[in-house]
Amino acid sequence: MSDTFLTAAEVAELTGRHRYGAQARALARMSIPFMVRPDGRPMMLRARIENLLGGQRSDERHLVPDWSAFEDVTA
Questions:
Q1: Using an 8 Å Cβ cutoff, are 56 and 49 in contact?
Q2: Residue 15: which domain range?
Q3: Predicted confidence band at 74 (pLDDT cuts at 50, 70, 90)?
Q4: Is residue 57 part of a domain?
Q5: What gap in Å lies between CA 66 and CA 57, rounded to an integer?
Q6: N or C: which end of the chain has fewer CB within 10 A?
Q7: pLDDT value at position 46?
Q8: How does pLDDT run across 8-64, given as a tens digit for each residue?
Q9: Does a structural domain hold residue 29?
């Protein structure tokens, strides 16, 4: 599966639970939106969770200003 959704290990870490039903109850108590797969496993979009928790993906580039426009041209 792609990095679009949280992995099973990440869901377990987030909820502190290993059973799918317990994970779903924990997510509901935390008001974290999720969907339930046909096998009962809760799944969440990674971007939505990062947005809710204020995180940032590690592969995002940080914008750096181009200061060359402010260089002293009289020197």
A1: no
A2: 1-50
A3: low
A4: no
A5: 23
A6: C
A7: 92
A8: 999 999 999 999 999 999 999 999 999 999 999 999 999 988 888 786 555 555 566
A9: yes
Tell me if 5 sits within 8 A of 45, measured CB to CB.
yes
Contact 20, 31 (CB under 8 A): no
Task: Please tell me the total count of domains within the chain.
Answer: 1
Whether residue 34 lies inside any domain: the answer is: yes
Of residues 33 and 72, which shows the higher confidence score?
A: 33
Q: Is residue 69 part of a domain?
A: no
How many residues are given for the chain?
A: 75
6, 46 Cβ separation under 8 angstroms: yes
Which residues have a Cβ under 8 Å from the Cβ of 49 and sit 6 or more positions away? 6, 14, 32, 55
Q: Which two tokens stand for residue 62?
A: 């940080």
Structure tokens at 20: 């799918």
Task: Tell me phi and psi for residue 43, to 5 degrees.
Answer: -135, 145
b/e map 49-65, b = 16+ CB within 10 Å: beeeeeeeeeeeeeeee
